[in-house]
């Protein structure tokens, strides 16, 4: 083995002020470099959070257990599979809290962590067992059971052999440090594989679905638990399908990049709902762990003309404006610019040493003023858009459940059309960039209210959180890198598992496995085709069927479809045709007798609903219908041919860092 140059071996990667950091640094300095894991890689991995981030402060571990405490009672005296425990700080705390029957430490980095894990395994009557296996090798999880490391688990009957159906396995708990990235050419994300294993009860789910408590980087946490719909990707759809609850126990509440995308009004409503749930659940938040409210944008009236300030979340470019306006030599932006060419004798600007900075702050200030003005219009238009959505939902409900007369339908239609014209007039002065931002804000609000889905529940699991995550600082992890603790509670009653039970009874497990592969591929469209409408996905899957026929076969699609009458309301010309019906027909007649097609669906009925708006359960219903239709599939490649396999196929083993998550 070739020697590693001394230049690439970093010095102590931890600040010496922390006793625990110094201990790890001292151990690492004595360890010989490894062929597969050279010293520079491990050190930089620890520094960047690529291998194992530890919890240096005892208070954070205690606070996490206090928050998880009520839900951990059912796991008392269980078995624990501990993946990448590192130095075992959080592992030891959880161990002392639960008093487990057996605690397996799956840690391959013995060069660096053996001295930390060895005292745990050598304690008198220790329940710990260190297995230096690679958790990224999926055979590891088969060997755990086959080699008898968890004998009490193997006494349980496998899930697929039970006639009563799938259940959760509270006698087993998985603790995983997922700040480790795939190594040795493996490209899949391990945590995503854990979640996918719920669908076919493989890995450690073979005796019942197992709860997973994972430590993730903040970026990866937002991939699996997105805060905004625009960031909902395939990984999030898989997590939603596999779990009944995904809760961020602790994390960085100051991450502001998504606050402005959510919108202040939606943020406020979401926080109030969480406060009610937290109060109802009697959740206790330790002192200093309260989530910080979103930072607000700067007031343009401070450095320019006075304007009515509209509160809104701060955006990333606001930091540049704030930094530039702190310059004491900044000229007064309120002073009007002089017109004409200045004379040679006139004094130059004494306060403007850097003209480029001055020009930049002027441009940013102008942008801030326009943004403030846009926000004022958005605040006026938003409640009207929400009211329009509710009126449209009422009209659809009326057409489906009652027998309304032409007069009733026209009354609703005229009201909706008038409000739409009013909103259109309000926003007519805004440019395309502002209108695009308003559309994004309304998309978040509609998915939060659940009006389009018919459930009146938020689409994102983040918006259903029982409480705010405990606020943490980056210096509470070692090395200093922001992380989140996520609690994944599996769902044994999901629609996928219910379908599996039917195929087990019918002895057609092969068909179910094909459906699962197709399902994973279809969920990939949430990433690759997230801007496309649902219709663009359904047409190639069901080329010989109309949208109206599909809605009858897949009832969960109905709330997302817009009947023909709503499309007529959107157009001024078509609205005139609709009103003209009152001149040629009796307005007291039922609408079905006057024009039954108004309540029907045409081929563009899903035009306003994007793929990323569909819940995971609806995507599964589409797969079930596709499998049962005459144009179903017999091989996994069939779904690739329909949806375009090249780009989606690459996501079979996705890692969060690939950008496809």
From TrEMBL:
One of its GO terms (biological process) is methylation. Signal peptide: none annotated. It comes from [Emmonsia] crescens. GO terms for molecular function: methyltransferase activity; mitochondrial transcription factor activity; RNA binding. Residues 269-282, 300-312 have a biased composition (Basic and acidic residues). InterPro entries: KsgA/Erm (IPR001737), SAM-dependent_MTases_sf (IPR029063). This is rRNA adenine N(6)-methyltransferase. One of its GO terms (cellular component) is mitochondrial DNA-directed RNA polymerase complex. Keywords: Methyltransferase, RNA-binding, rRNA processing, S-adenosyl-L-methionine, Transferase. Its EC number is 2.1.1.-. It is an enzyme of class 2 (transferase). Belongs to the class I-like SAM-binding methyltransferase superfamily. rRNA adenine N(6)-methyltransferase family. Residues 269-312, 327-355 are annotated as: Disordered.
